[in-house]
Design goal:
The protein is of the alpha+beta class. The chain has 5 helices and 16 strands. The strands form 4 sheets. Strands 5, 6, 7, 8 and 9 form a 5-stranded antiparallel beta sheet that branches. The N and C termini lie far apart (about 105 Å).
Length: about 350
């Protein structure tokens, strides 16, 4: 009996030890957990001094100089550990706790441009840079109808990082089994970093309930400008928002516009909720206009939809506010306009 009890106790202890070792191995494999304690917000003067010193120090790599200088400037041990985890290239400027996988907003002080970045942390792998090309799906864009249409019109269209200076992104969607989906916005530019902005591409980064990275995929494409409208994006407009309570009266053959408040940084945009009465009106095109404060992160704008009156009569135009990748949905809000076409 004593021998039996001893065997049971031995097996129990062995199980506990194996479990602890497995957890330690998982923790070591996942890297250090990142939290708010790692946030470091140096003053402008402090960071200017570090850049001046480390950017010109001869014989010492700027990365080593950077981490030593931040330590002397009072950065916490957690902040220093995070800096080292990035290869001594960035510090954590802000942090969002999102569940099993969290979001780290970083600043790269020695880059010539693209100084802000976004990392998905505390998962497996422990750090994913959303702007690292290796995480982009290779065939997503090539199979997308809207992107191919844009490509025919602008053969040099390419994908670039979106604004990374705020903390109101990425968009988070919950998946089955406690999984997480982070939807990130990228810019579609006409060939170069400073070239014409054509629209946005939305990619998802999916994780399972244990925080393991599953993969990325293209969620949707939207356009900022439709050239056939003659409307240019990124300019201020003075039009009042169209009031759906007022009937729009227009002469046959004339064009008219419906202007709606919109914010593409949230992933939402307006679209037709129902087919148009083709005998009465037709769609000419649409454009997204960023307002004068559009340089601010998260700033909204207006969508200008242009229609042409065709034949005499009454009809309705119903619009819905939705995300382009959420198919067959009613949208978060809808508006309906009564159109009266006269001779």
């Amino acid at each position: 009996m004593k021998f039996f009890i001893a065997v049971v106790l031995f097996m129990f202890c062995f199980f506990i030890l194996a479990t602890v070792q497995d957890e330690r191995a998982h923790a070591q494999g996942s890297g250090q957990t990142v939290g708010k304690e790692a946030v470091w917000r140096p003053g402008t003067g402090v960071m200017d001094g570090i850049r001046e010193k480390c950017g010109s120090l001869m014989g010492v790599p700027s990365s080593d100089c950077f981490v030593l200088s931040t330590e002397r400037a009072g950065a916490s041990p957690q902040a220093l550990a995070f800096i080292r985890s990035t290869g001594n290239t960035a510090y954590l400027r802000d942090f969002r706790e999102m569940g099993r996988v969290d979001v780290a907003y970083v600043h790269y002080p020695f880059r010539a441009n693209e100084n802000e970045g976004c990392l998905l942390v505390n998962g497996d792998p422990p750090i994913i840079d959303v702007d690292d090309p290796k995480y982009k799906p290779k065939d997503g864009l090539q199979k997308d109808r809207r992107f191919n249409s844009l490509l025919k019109e602008f053969p040099k269209v390419s994908v670039w990082p979106g604004a990374r200076s705020g903390t109101d992104y990425p968009l988070l969607q919950k998946l089955a089994g406690n999984g997480q989906r982070f939807v990130v916005r990228y810019l579609l530019l006409n060939g170069c970093h400073s070239c014409e902005r054509l629209g946005n591409a939305w990619f998802s980064f999916d994780f399972d309930g244990m925080g393991k990275f599953v993969g990325t995929r293209l969620m949707g494409i939207d356009r900022d400008t439709r050239p056939d409208t003659g409307i240019e994006g990124n300019v201020a407009i003075e039009d009042d928002f169209t009031d759906p309570k007022k009937t729009i009266e227009v002469a046959s053959g004339r064009e008219f516009t419906i202007v709606l408040g919109s914010n593409r940084t949230t992933g939402y945009q307006w679209d037709l909720a129902k087919p148009l009465d083709k005998g009465t009106v037709e769609l000419v095109g649409s454009a997204y206009k960023i307002l004068q404060d559009g340089g601010k992160v998260g700033a909204g704008g207006k969508e200008v939809w242009t229609f042409r009156a065709l034949g005499e009569g009454k009809t309705m135009i119903t619009m819905k506010y939705m995300r382009p990748w959420e198919k067959n949905t009613a949208g978060v809000k809808t508006v309906t306009f009564e159109i009266v076409v006269k001779k």
